[in-house]
């Protein structure tokens, strides 16, 4: 997996904020953190620079401010991360992943129906 697809928990937290904001300054990212999350301005700035080095985040200058924006697409990140989990944890067997999720997470009747509809649609697509 490419280095840009490996994010630490703090990097992922910052990326989630940038995906939501679409772009932002260090202050705006700080404001996007949960109130209980205490990170210093310098820590967020450092994390954004690391994400920039990983080519997950781009930067542009606006006056004296630096504005950061995601280069890493959330959908691509999710896809790559999930593929890595399927390969490394479930020996490439997606059915094992689904089975694990169903067994380990309480699902409501409504959620089961939604999943069933997705599976039915996929069956029709493959037929």
Main features:
9% strand, single chain, 127 residues, two-stranded antiparallel ribbon, 2 domains, Arc Repressor Mutant, subunit A, mainly alpha
Name of the CATH homologous superfamily of the largest domain: Winged helix-like DNA-binding domain superfamily/Winged helix DNA-binding domain
Number of domains: 2
What is the CA–CA distance across the termini? 32 Å
Tally the helices: what do you get? 6
Oligomer: single chain
CATH T-level fold name of the largest domain: Arc Repressor Mutant, subunit A
Q: Which percent band covers the strand fraction? A: 5-15%
What is the CATH first-level class name of the largest domain?
A: Mainly Alpha
Q: Report the major sheet.
A: 2 strands, antiparallel
Mean pLDDT: 93
Helix content: 55-70%
Strand order of the largest sheet: 1-2
Strand element count: 2
> Which CATH architecture of the largest domain?
Orthogonal Bundle
Question: What is the SS-derived class?
Answer: mainly alpha
Order of helices and strands: HHHEEHHH
Using only C-alpha atoms, the radius of gyration works out to 19 Å
Write down the overall geometry: elongated
What are the segments in which pLDDT stays under 50 over at least 5 consecutive residues?
none
Describe the structure.
- The chain has 127 residues and is mainly α.
- It is 61% helix and 9% strand.
- It is built from six helices and two strands.
Briefly say what this structure is.
With 127 residues, this protein is mostly helical. The protein has helices spanning 9-21, 26-32, 41-53, 74-89, 94-104, 109-126, and strands at 57-62, 65-70.
